Amino acid sequence: MSVWAVLAAAGSGERLGADRPKAFVRLGDRVLLAESLERLDASEWIDEIVVAAPPGWEEPAILVAEEIGCSKVSACVAGGPSRGESVRNALAEVPDDAAVVVVHDAARPFVDDEVIGRVVGALNEGWDGAVPVLPVSDTVKRVDGDRVVETLRRDELRAVQTPQAFVASVLREAMAGEDVSAASDCASLVEARGGRVKAVPGDSRLAKVTDATDLERAASLL
Ligand code: CTP
Ligand code: MG
Predict the structure, then answer these.
(1) Among 147, 172, 203, 218, whose Cα sits 20 to 30 Å from the Cα of 29?
(2) From the CA of 66, how far away is ligand 1's center (Å)?
(3) Residues whose beta carbon lies within 6 Å of some atom of ligand 1
(4) Closest alpha carbon to 39 in 184, 177, 162, 200
């Protein structure tokens, strides 16, 4: 059973506001991309990796992989204008006989084998997909402009992270022919088609680097 990882690293990092795409900003001695790539490469669960890089940054991404001695990177593709399109571009490089696809955001540097094991393990229980989640500590309300419309029941809400694992054929079908540009994660596309997605325990260390404060926090965790 082959498990492929898709690493979504093609975002521009607008909210971070650096002079280069987010995957290539410095985190400690290396670029942000190196952290998640090295961890996926070292994972006992992952066989092969496809990286979606910002258009024009495919070569630098391959150089990063070579520098850190990654042996599992099969392809590096140009991402699209949205995360969904970037993942779809990468998925095109995953062979038809792949059993499982694990999709991870390069913006979450500290992925580890325990959480990968939890999401992949759920597929062995018969789920179509699995996502790491954390409880939500803030009260969450739905708004229309600045008018509050509804207060959601917090005990039913979870904050969702990556890595997300899917039966490869299920993810492929969920992404084929759909408008994936508005989807903020892959699981939502699988859910929309009636796929069964399991919520497994996430990890606060998987927090996403979105702005400059997040980058500082990530650096402090190195
Ligand atoms: N991503 C991608 N292709 C895109 C947009 C996003 O592969 N066209 C990836 C990012 O590289 C990141 C993950 O999706 O690893 C989550 O996206 P986000 O944190 O929003 O990153 P950016 O889109 O780069 O940041 P911003 O929204 O601030 O521009
Ligand atoms: Mg974005």
Answers:
(1) 203
(2) 23
(3) 8-15, 22-23, 52, 79-83, 86, 105-107, 208, 210
(4) 162
Q: What's the DSSP call for residue 192?
A: H
Q: Which two tokens stand for residue 26?
A: 């410095």
What is the DSSP secondary structure assignment for residue 89, as one 8-state letter? Answer: H
The model's pTM: 0.97
Cβ contacts of residue 177 below 8 Å, gap of 6+? none
Our count of domains for the chain comes to 1
- Cα dihedral value 148, 150, 156, 158, nearest 10: -30
The CATH number assigned to the domain holding 17 equals: 3.90.550.10
Hey, CA dihedral for 101, 98, 177, 8, is it positive or negative?
positive
Interval between CA 181 and ligand 1 midpoint (Å): 12
Q: pLDDT tens, position by position, for the chain (222 residues)? A: 899 999 999 999 999 999 999 999 999 999 999 999 999 999 999 999 999 999 999 999 999 999 999 999 999 999 999 999 999 999 999 999 999 999 999 999 999 999 999 999 999 999 999 999 999 999 999 999 999 999 999 999 999 999 999 999 999 999 998 889 999 999 999 999 999 999 999 999 999 999 999 999 999 999
Q: Name the DSSP class of 17.
A: T
DSSP at 162: S
Domain that holds residue 11: 3-219
Tokens for 72?
Answer: 């599992």
